[in-house]
Amino acid sequence: MIEIWIQAAGLTLAGATLLAGSALAFDRFAPRGLLRERHDLAVAVIAITPLIFATALMPQQAGSAEEAAVYLHYPSVAAETAQTGPAASTGPRLPDGAGGDPAGGFDWPALPYHSIFGALLLAWILGSAAMAVRLAADLAALRRLIGRARPFTPPASLTLSRALPVAESPDVACPMLAGFFRPVILVPCGFRIDVSARPVLEHEIAHARRGDTWVALGLRLAMAVFWWALPLRLLQPVIDRSREALCDRQAAQITGEPRALASALLDTAAAAVRTPSLALAAAPTRSGLARRIGHLTDPDTLARKDTVMRFALILPVLAAGTLALTPNVGAAGGIENNAVPTRTLDTSLDLDASLFQAARRGRTGWIEELLAEGANPDVAFRGDGTALTAAARNGHTRAVEILLEAGADPDLGSGGDGNPLIAAAARGDRDVVTRLLAYGADVDSAWPGDGNALIAASLRGQTDIVNLLVEAGADPNGYVRGDETPLINAAQQGHVDVAEILAEAGADLSLTVLANIRNGEEIYRSPISEARRNGHRGMVAWLEARGATHNPPSE
Length: 555
Fold this sequence. Notes:
- This protein is α+β, with helices and mostly antiparallel strands.
- It has helices at about 1-30, 35-55, 65-75, 85-90, 110-150, 200-210, 210-225, 235-255, 260-270, 285-295, 310-325, 350-360, 365-370, 385-395, 395-405, 420-425, 430-440, 455-460, 465-470, 485-495, 495-505, 525-535, 535-545; strands at about 150, 165-170, 175-180, 185-190, 280, 335, 340-345, 380, 445, 450, 515-520, 520-525.
- The strands form 4 sheets. The chain has a 5-stranded mixed sheet with strand order 1-2-4-3-5, with helices on both faces. It has a 3-stranded mixed sheet with strand order 6-7-8.
């Protein structure tokens, strides 16, 4: 899983570099008047970065038919898991396939690059945490800035295009817009608000009308997560410069006085102050002053119209390109749960899909006809499983017999749906379980997310099935990552009668295994830890009376 995240991050960095380079080239060579286009393209590139990452994490398609066949017949291939510490000395060796997901979704072989990828992921998390803390501090500082300001009522003779609250602040040296839900224009103490101040105030109103404070916050959030995509940082000056020029243009169009605004910019630029984070100041930076003055003194400023190249068009185009061009490095999607190639049930049913529907309903005559016509019983449908699984899940014993006689694989299944034996065990159907075992079903066949047959029966308290499976040779200590062991599942539900059967069959009452990974921490579970966690006092007493303990591996 770590490797997949780092690979996706690498693809994201490559995509962000390419898109940022394109936006910078556009800023450099496009006509000077294309302000909105510069701004919207740069914002869209940063906004599309999370989509590149999400697209890269999407499941990849299955490779070749030969690869699919390997998973088809060997769904539980995985590295052997070994335990250390007390659990290793008191319990049996965990069975092959204990690592579960063959794609390495949780368990990793001991290879050097694993630690490198882990270090990179840790650096990513720590960097994002630091950026989040900094953003929180900036938001708090902005709130204090607004809180210290004193409300001020502009003279009635000053007509503005929008009524925004104005406040005097001792902490600012030039007018600026601050706030999100209720933005306020902050002006320095003693700032003369008269007709000459109207262009500057309209500039701040333009920020509020455009929602620029929200855009600035959104960009900060995106960069807090993807802070390592350094080429994106080169776009921030482009966004700031074009955003201010756009507000200049809007203010000039409203007041009809572009030169008055240019003069006001020259006056406010003398302050040369650093803009408080997340507040949008009217004062230009020294490097951007000449360009903004140039736009305002351009004769076409008031008449200029934007092209169709707007954010509403740019973002969908970039998103479509991202989906089409970004490689997928997630767990294989053509092989569901990395176990078996699957498909969805067709709207217009073909032979295979019709066979599945017939098996689900137990229509034996229909099943025989479809098999005679060439329907394949070994097709797995995503979210539903195989025809044999459907028949077993619904208790259609005769349908199960017909499919088995036709050569249906009794071990074939799909992730999330298990296989026929797991489905029958969960249902508690002794007849179907018996027939599946008679046709050679692997009693310990496991599917991550569904466990194995003994786990499914133990979880549901199916004592008759537990006895049957144990007599057929099922491993009472069989471990499936994410589903744990039969005894742990019985303890979770407080099934003491099932625990007695498993203990008599040789289940280790203290076997402690690695379970889910939460918040980056490895969690170990045992029968007694699960009984206590779920409040099953009778199960706890039964385990304690037999000396059961919780034995995670020693550090």
